[in-house]
Amino acid sequence: MAAGADGPLKRMFVPILLPEKCYDQFFVHWDLLHVKLPQVFKILGAKSAEGLSLQSVMLELVALTGTMVYSIVNHFPFSSWGEALFLMLQTVTICFLVLHYRGQTGKGLAFLVGYALVLLVLLSPLTPRAIVTLLQASNMPSVVVGKLLQALTSYRNGHTGQLSAITVFLLFGGSLARIFTSIQETGDPLMAGTFVVSSLCNGLIAAQLLFYWNAKAPHKKKE
What we know:
about 220 residues, mainly alpha, 11 helices, globular, disordered N terminus
């Protein structure tokens, strides 16, 4: 795992995008648990979720949930899917914040309750193994459609709004690294394929963020 992290991936990120110390913390020691917190803090700091596609965030949550449930049901080691749990919690938070700052706090609270109930059902014996496998297989289209929706939102806006550059680049690097670890630790082609597709899609968002780096959201005039 460390060998994969120290290869081409490290040359890509150090020192252009990340200092070596940060790279080691995130990709060698696997401190990816808080990768979406910069996004959460950026939304809270701006008191706005402008530029974020709610549909994209929801579909990403579907993909993370599928990976987590599929891994638990198949008794994969926690190291192969543990970050999906923490990313899921942060993604749920982002979903709520997007709704909250759109003035839909009630819907946000209902979403939290509904998601918790769905997760409990998926992890219970009530859910057939075939449904769990189908959910994991749906990760690829969920990730692709979700990222394309985010890319389309940014394209239409002409800026990336409150998208966090730190989160975008860490997700891109993390998904690249997970290709190697999923192959080594699970040997499951479905898991590895999901991370390949995720890497391509995260790369698209990262490239778009760089393209719109200097573009700012227009200020709304108060009536």
